[in-house]
Design the sequence.
């Protein structure tokens, strides 16, 4: 079992990594126009609220500052103060995940049907019409089979590591909280 001081340093390292990933996500959100959109109109049900995001980041940063001061000074009250800042920050972080995670839901208002932008992509009304006609359905299935089963050098799997950043941020946040709690208890 690691000593109390080692736990403090492990928690600090984990906290710093978590903050780094959070900063990367915040930078991405700002670069994609998130702040501008949040200031121009009230947030929609599926959009991030600037106060929620600022609260999450600010509380975590305050907790980190308390934790650094605890590691440097050994004052146990600072460890528990850091945890006190971290707890609501975790709650706000969970709410950001809930807001940003896509889920199947119907919109209250009717959305206009998007125009076809790619060849071979059918709108909902076109797909409904094709599925209602047996000959068109057979043709659609044949085209889909031919397009998807034919070997193509141009068709390569598109891998993206972007979804791993919030996942790693969340896992590190859980690890940080557990390490910080253990280190604070060991400091008693």
Sequence:
């Amino acid at each position: 079992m690691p000593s109390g001081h080692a736990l403090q340093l492990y928690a600090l390292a984990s906290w710093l990594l978590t903050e780094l990933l959070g900063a990367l996500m915040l930078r991405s959100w700002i670069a994609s126009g998130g702040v501008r959109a949040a200031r121009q109109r009230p947030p929609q049900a599926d959009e991030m609220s600037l106060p929620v995001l600022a609260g999450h980041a600010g509380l975590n940063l305050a907790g980190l500052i308390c934790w650094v001061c605890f590691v440097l000074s050994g004052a146990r009250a600072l460890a528990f103060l850091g945890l006190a800042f971290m707890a609501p920050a975790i709650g706000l972080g969970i709410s950001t995940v809930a807001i940003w995670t896509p889920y199947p839901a119907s919109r209250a208002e009717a959305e206009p049907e998007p125009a076809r932008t790619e060849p071979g992509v059918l709108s909902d009304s076109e797909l409904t019409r094709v599925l209602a006609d047996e000959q068109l359905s057979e043709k659609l299935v044949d085209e889909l089979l031919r397009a998807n089963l034919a070997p193509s050098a141009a068709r390569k799997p598109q891998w993206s590591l972007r979804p791993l950043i919030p996942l790693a941020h969340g896992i590190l946040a859980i690890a940080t909280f557990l390490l910080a709690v253990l280190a604070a208890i060991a400091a008693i």
Q: What stands out?
A: The CA atoms of residues 164 and 170 lie 10 Å apart. Confidence is low (pLDDT under 50) at residues 103-110. DSSP finds seven helices and no strands in the chain. The first helix runs from residue 4 to 31.
